[in-house]
User: What shape does this take?
Amino acid sequence: MQFAGLAWGQAPTGLGEQGWYADPEAHVFAGEYWIYPTYSDPAPLPVGASQFTELQQARRDEKGLRKAYLQQTFMDAFSSPDLVHWIKHPHVLDVKNVPWAAYAVWAPSVIELKGKYYLFFGANDIQKDETTAGGIGVAVSDSPGGPFVDAIGKPLIGAFYNGAQPIDPFVYQDDDGRIYLYYGGQGHCNVVGLTADLKAVTPLPDGELYKEITPAEYVEGPFLIKRNGVYYFMWSEGDWGDSSYGVAYARSSSPIGPFTRVGKILQTDARVANGPGHHSVIHLPGTDEWYIVYHRHPLGNTEPNQRLMAIDRMYFDKDGKIVPVKMTAKGVAARRLGGDSQAR
Assistant: This one.
């Protein structure tokens, strides 16, 4: 599939036809489905695609970076009335509105709170010995379609704790109102509590500030759902650039663990696609209807950054275990929302 030069206004509307995107997080906001992914096309961007300050440009020039990372300076979003027909919303987040971010803007997680929308993201791909500012940031908007603007003027989490690289945030509000942030790359995952305004880390109910909850074989991309009082902690494992990539999960009676690994539920299918992972889940309340939204590599594609979004149904068995997901080529049938539908 080739997307270079595609006129987006005339593009096919299916999720997998929107271009090269990864790490999609799906929600229901304002009566529509929304998906927020990482831009993942290594091809050079058009001139003027993003504007950089002197500081941002200096950070982009500091070291040899992957070409794709230098292109990842913004995030698009997609909305749909039915999970089938999608509309692109360009640059809902852009580094012009986040002065400390310069490249590698990754893996958004969005939450609505008191009429505002908060987008958490990773930027600058900081390493353990990094001197450049970077890590997990938070931006805010009055609309799910942005523009999102930096909320605190610096990273929310800008250093390594318990070995977890500050990338791949996932924000979750539990039924009691407490808000948690799960994050981590390089094989480690932490959970932290967030203050009521979402602008600072606060101790968890057990008193810990940065609590490591890394399950066996965890690599990155944490996600959490709750069903019938059970917390399902999900993550991606394997190598993100090849067919070993997939999604596994664990269960717990608490949102902060401990989590007991159950197994893998999404993996390569040589008939459909390679390396599916870094997912999110939509639940339609009042039903036991669940959808998994993820990225994958087209068969025969050898460029690791070129990934397509996909959506399939997710089911549970009578014992509450997640049934291994069957990847499909076309995705799901149209599903319009009811009047009171929400999703996490």
